């Protein structure tokens, strides 16, 4: 392997725009790209624009009739077929929807191909991570499921074991569904409990089916979980499973909507804890996947304070040039933020937290809701994989 890292970027991905009233404002992507540039990370990795995913690639995950419905709505938004989840409040149809959704998917697929070929060790597509799209329908602001498509392409190229770790505040339901019966793919999702958040799935008991039984893992976190609990849950579940599975590629989804400022969810995670999990995923890739790591974005609706800083940290870690949390945000970027949004930008790359957590090996409290969650996940999955719960 060359050891180089790759950032997937095409300005056209900012055309993924559901309209001015929608929370998924594409300015979050543009501001992230500008912050990456302001820190000079362009010099530390290769910036690559890939072609849009073609129909044969989209069909690795999505049904032909669904692709046709997306194309039709893309050409005429007023004719969107809501039976496919298009033209809803969450997923309004817009002109060019198919083209830009396929473009985002193409970035993730091309990144997976580059990693598998050995051209790069790490690749980042922060415009990706659209993990709710199903084989036959749009959902949760997601049209095409680029994460699933990247994994499916890796399998097509010959990968025998791919692990997917999703730390978005919402359950990674679309990726889980795509590989529900496939033992070659281990899906792990840490998310807010389905009782309190969309998509109301991701219970500990959801563990896969058929040959894939035990290949789906869900940690359903209580609303209000903060840094110490989130990090405790991650380290109590993810490293042991990844070590056991020995993936050839690690794919991770880093939705920034776990943050305490995010308006759409109820966890209380800091930027500093998000960065620590990004670093942990990087380390897991090197320890157990020969360094092969595809990192994706996802949700995140605090579009100035959180998303750009979180995904710039992610890109810097992948580039081998991590940014110190206390680093000042470049002044040129703060001016860019104000010009685009009329909001004041954060001054530093930290929330000022130094998160610590109690390791699971130290024991658990049976009366604690978080520990109950972790134990439920371990009991549901670990014995199926020959591990002690």
From TrEMBL:
Report domain Histone deacetylase positions: 22-316
Entry-linked Pfam families: Hist_deacetyl
| Gene Ontology terms describing biological process | acetoin catabolic process; epigenetic regulation of gene expression
Is Chaperone included in the keywords of this UniProt record? no
Name any one GO molecular function.
Answer: histone deacetylase activity
Gene3D superfamilies reported in the protein's UniProt record: Histone deacetylase domain
* UniProtKB keywords: Acetoin catabolism, Hydrolase
Question: Which pathway does it operate in?
Answer: Ketone degradation; acetoin degradation
Give the record's family classification: Belongs to the histone deacetylase family.
- Its name, as the record gives it, is Acetoin utilization protein AcuC
């Amino acid at each position: 392997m060359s050891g180089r890292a790759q950032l997937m970027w095409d300005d056209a991905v900012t055309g993924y725009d559901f309209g001015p009233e929608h929370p998924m404002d594409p300015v979050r992507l543009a501001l992230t790209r500008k912050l990456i540039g302001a820190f000079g990370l362009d010099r530390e990795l290769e910036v690559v624009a890939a072609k849009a995913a073609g129909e044969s690639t989209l069909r690795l995950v999505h049904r032909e009739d669904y692709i046709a419905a997306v194309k039709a709505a893309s050409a005429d938004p007023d004719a969107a077929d809501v039976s496919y989840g298009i033209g809803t409040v969450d997923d309004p149809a817009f002109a060019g929807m198919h083209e830009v959704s396929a473009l985002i998917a193409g970035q993730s697929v091309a990144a997976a191909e580059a990693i598998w070929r050995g051209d790069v060790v790490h690749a980042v597509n922060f415009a990706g991570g659209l993990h709710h799209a199903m084989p036959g329908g749009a959902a949760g602001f997601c049209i095409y499921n680029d994460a699933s498509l990247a994994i499916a392409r890796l399998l097509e190229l010959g990968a025998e074991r791919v692990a997917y770790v999703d730390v978005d505040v919402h359950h990674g339901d679309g990726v889980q569904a795509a590989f529900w019966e496939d033992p070659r793919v281990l899906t792990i999702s840490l998310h807010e409990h389905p009782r309190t958040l969309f998509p109301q799935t991701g219970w500990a008991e959801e563990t896969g089916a058929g040959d894939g039984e035990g290949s789906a893992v869900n940690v359903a976190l209580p609303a209000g979980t903060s840094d110490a609990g989130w990090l405790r849950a991650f380290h109590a579940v993810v490293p042991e499973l990844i070590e056991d599975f020995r993936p050839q590629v690690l794919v991770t989804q880093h939705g920034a909507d776990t943050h305490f400022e995010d308006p759409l969810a109820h966890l209380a995670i800091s930027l500093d804890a998000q960065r620590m999990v990004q670093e942990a995923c990087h380390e897991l890739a090197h320890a157990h996947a020969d360094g092969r790591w595809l990192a994706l974005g996802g949700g995140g609706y605090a579009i100035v304070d959180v998303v750009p800083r979180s995904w710039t940290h992610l890109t810097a870690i992948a580039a081998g040039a991590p940014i110190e949390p206390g680093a000042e945000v470049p002044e040129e970027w703060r001016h860019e933020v104000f010009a685009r949004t009329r909001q004041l930008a954060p001054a530093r790359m930290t929330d000022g937290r130094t998160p610590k957590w109690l390791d699971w090996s130290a024991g658990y409290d049976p009366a604690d809701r978080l520990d109950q969650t972790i134990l439920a996940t371990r009991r549901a999955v670990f014995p199926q994989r020959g591990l002690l719960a």
